[in-house]
Amino acid sequence: MRSRTLFPITLGAALLASAAVQAKTYPEAEKATLELSRQAIALRSVRGEGNETPKVAELFRDALIEGGWDPKDIEIVPHEDTAYLIATWRGSDPSLGPVVVSAHMDVVEAKPEDWERDPFTPVVENGYLYGRGASDTKFDAVLAMEAMIELRRQGFQPKRSLVIALSGDEETTMDTSKLIAERLRDARIVLNVDGASGTLSEETGKPLYWSWQGGEKTYIDYKIEITNPGGHSSMPRPDNAIVQMSQVLDRIGHYNFKPELNDITREYWIEASKLEPDAELAAAMKAFVADPDDAAALRVLRANPSMVGRIGTTCVPTLISGGHAQNALPQNVTANINCRIFPGHSRTEIMAELEKVAAEPAATFSDVTGDDSVMAPASPMDPEFVKAVRKAVTAAWGPVPIIPMQSSGASDSMWYRALGVPSYGASATMLKESDEFAHGLNEREPLVNIRPGIVYYLSLYRDLAGK
Question: How far apart are CA 19 and CA 10, in angstroms?
């Protein structure tokens, strides 16, 4: 009852902040975005027993049918304990590849006893929507969907089909992500709206910059194993498996892979350096673009945790296990090395490099990643996309610096890119860094995103699907 009471006051106050940028309002879409987001958050779409992701798909299907979609153009496909949804707004030219809007309906686990508010009871308070999935990524999915419903309400007829593709296990196995990408491999472009793309000032709440994601590093796990005969601890031997493994991990921990640039990261370093307030860091960013092997620049960038992952491939030890008794020499020691591989390198290539760095004949390496990750090239710097997002962001938020980026994490985009389909992280939402609680406690989304978000998507859909 409390959240219902706050609804008209909080939503209105939040939307006022964007009024100076975009006077036009979309009352039906704005109200529906908040209401549908709340309904989706209330469904516990967590992998395992009681997974309600299929119910989220049904909720979205019903909203799309009410918004004008033919039920025959909406598919909900069950898969194990989850499901995925594909909804098509058919364009006038079926020979053209569709524009796909990608997001996911599942969320990570949340324990109510750890939260200030129940994670699956949405609360609107002080200009924020609280609940698991508020920022990752039910709100973003609903915002993109309601903007498309609004576009249909306005009588727009796309030339290219517009497809909403919502996976059901992005946070875990990504099985449905792979299935969707395979089905939509004829897409012209994918807009992945998973998570915020813009950053708001902590002091003023105004936009600082907006970024689009055109590539991501590949997640890989390697297992290292060293096996020895063992023996009594009173008779030490030189080839102690724990000692050998510690030396291997020390060498890997201190190793730096070759620094690299591609079209997206080069543009990132150039544009980000213009906004960097730290003079030393800004100078290092510029120097790195001029010469990726600049030792002084690399020292500065590698000392910064937020920058080191952007330079090239990184590999770090994350798990270790070994020994079987306090008074026995270890017979077996294993360790896990987690790598984030810069686009353009194979997992076998990186494993071979690690074996060389380890310099330990007794160590055996194996790739234990499984099927949850795939090597994928970066998407191209597509001029049509870049022009369309610049226009959309400006319409929504005013003149804001726009920075392309490459992510060190994983998203559904990699499955499309692996098939040669250009995919871009291009969410409409903006967040303060202090409001970033995805996967964490008390996840929340500022409602100031609703009105400019609708403006953004209306512009983007028209430009990309209307040609």
Answer: 15
